[in-house]
Amino acid sequence: MSTAENPVFVESEPDSDHDSDSTSSDDLAMSVSPLQARLKRKHQSSQEDEPEQFAQDPNAPIKVDLERNIAKEQEDAAKDKEDKVQELLEQAEELQKELTEAKSEFNKLTRASTSEQVQVYKDKVAAQETELASKADELLHLSTKNEKLERKLEETKGKLQKAIEQAERQVKNLAIYKDNYHKAKIAYEL
Length: 190
Description:
Layout (H helix, E strand, L loop, with lengths): L24 H6 L3 H16 L3 H4 L3 H52 L3 H75 L1
Helix pairs in contact: 4-5
């Protein structure tokens, strides 16, 4: 077995509870990359708090964290959209009431009023119709913006999925490293 096929082995400090030739799993984690060590510690702490299936799947805590992050991001985006839509709808509803009142007043004036008063209410109605149309355009724009946000969330989910796959490969490589380390140690002792 060549050194190109196997990672460089790093001897760890002897455990006080074992002889000088034995290596604990914590010492082994210190001999690999910081990310792999963090993954190992995350797995160990998660096994104490999470259900039994986490012990069967070393990647389960990582997947759960990533899924929670995705869910939180989606929830925040949905809440922002809902708040903005509600605000615009309330404004549109208020404008609609004002427009209805203005049209009603205008109808009264057309029956008995001077041309100057009629023109004032005509202008008021026209201004409110313009503002209401602007709110409708803003709602349409918000809908288009939301589609872009959803695409961004999909892209984020894709990146997170790649991160999960990378973490799985690193955990797998760590297992191979541990196996090769013990084989090499046994061969050395023989």
